[in-house]
Amino acid sequence: MVRYTIIERAPAAFQQPVPLEQIQAMCQRAFGKDRSILSIEELAGGGHNNTYRILLAAMPPVILRVSPAHGPHLAQHELNLMRNEQYMQPFLAPIAPLMPRTLMVDFTHQLIKRDYIFQTFMEGELWSDIEHELTLEEDLALYRQLAELTKIIHGVEGETFGQPLVGHTFDRWSSLVVHKLESSIRDLEAIPLDATDVRALLDLVMAHLDLLDQIDRPRLLHGDLWTFNVLVKRDPAQHVPTISAVLDSDRCWWGDPLADWTMFLLHIRATESPDPKVVAGTRAFWQTYADAEPDPGAQFRSHVYHAMSFCDARIELQRRQSHERVRQTYQRIQEIRDALCTCGA
Asked: What is the CATH number for 216?
């Protein structure tokens, strides 16, 4: 008898569980029909894929990740994320020891009308789960390690901007930014939500494409590198905890390092968190990352990138029915538009 544990969700929830029979068929395809399944446990934390920890006979535990089925519920930037991850994996070679290994991937849709992948199970605790337990010294050490990892990833150069696998590649950085804003407008209006503020933002961007095109070398961006995708190990023999794994690299793309989701979350934490420990952590990150002092062009670009991130967040928050936070995104984008006007736009 297989112990099968899932997270109970509403019938209309974005994440839909995978039936036991289908998981058994996936395991047989990946590991053979003679390999017994001992337990299947769905893991909490992620908001896109369904993730399961599976224990099979005479094997270390494995992770099964199952993407959502295609449909109108997915925004443009959410399509084919698992396939994007497989395409981008070789470019993450500089941090390979921290990455889960792919054991088997299936995009045939023969067993289930969803992409899925088996990966090695990585030891450690989610940083986001233990943040409240960490001392200031421990937290600062992890933020410094996060900065070092981020800088390593951003040090990988590409040939074009965007995501080559899905065909969204551009020779000019400004063309990609415009494409992303236009896609956000379409996604918002399809929900439907008002996208008037994003259209106004796009007008500002179109008038200053030259500031965006100061970025002429595509860099690798993780797209989702934050505490909820980082495992850490706490060893009593070690003075501070260490990052042991980086998870979920399905949102990787090529662009300006300042446009990475990590940089947006650092900005939000630095400006909005009431916790002095969190604010100190963001400072430790930037001191370690040691980026150049921002010039007017970089300030303009940062404002635009923050607005782009709020567009993506608005779509996700609407899906979660977090209506008050959806309303807050309108205020934040208005503030960004005001700031753009004062810095030359």
From this structure: 3.90.1200.10
Question: Would you call 113 helix, strand, or coil by DSSP?
Answer: coil
Residue 171, φ and ψ in degrees, nearest 5: -80, -25
Contacts for 108-111 with beta carbons within 8 Å, 24 or more apart?
Answer: 111/22, 111/25, 111/26, 111/29
Number of domains in the chain: 2
Residue 334 has a pLDDT of 97
Angle CA 204–208–211, to nearest 5:
130
Q: Tell me the residue ranges of DSSP E strands in 216-270.
A: 219-221, 230-233, 242-246, 253-255
Q: What is the pLDDT of residue 343?
A: 64
Residues 97 and 200 in one domain: no
Which of residues 90, 120, 150 is at a domain's end?
120
**In Å, what is the CA distance from 153 to each residue of 213, 244, 288?**
21, 16, 14
Rounded distance between C-alpha atoms, residue 149 and residue 197, angstroms = 35
For residue 345, what pLDDT is reported?
Answer: 53
At residue 76, the pLDDT reads 82
What is the C-alpha separation between 208 and 178, in angstroms, rounded?
Answer: 11
At which of 61, 86, 120 does a domain end? 120
Residue found under tokens 């986001």: 128
Distances, alpha carbon 138 to alpha carbons 41, 135, 241, 285, 287, in Å: 30, 5, 6, 13, 16
* pLDDT per 10-residue tile (average), the chain, 345 residues: 88 88 97 96 89 97 95 82 96 98 98 98 96 95 98 98 88 97 96 96 96 97 97 91 96 97 96 91 96 83 97 93 96 95 66
Rounded CA-CA distance 314/70 in Å is 20
Residues 226 and 115 in one domain: no
Owning domain of residue 98? 3-120
Question: Can you tell me the distance from the alpha carbon of 301 to that of 259, in angstroms, rounded to the nearest whole number?
Answer: 8
- Whether 304 and 171 map to the same domain: the answer is yes
Three-state DSSP at 189 gives: helix
Q: Categorise residue 118: left if φ over 0, alpha if ψ from -120 to 50, beta otherwise.
A: beta
The answer to whether the CB of 198 falls within 8 A of the CB of 330 is no
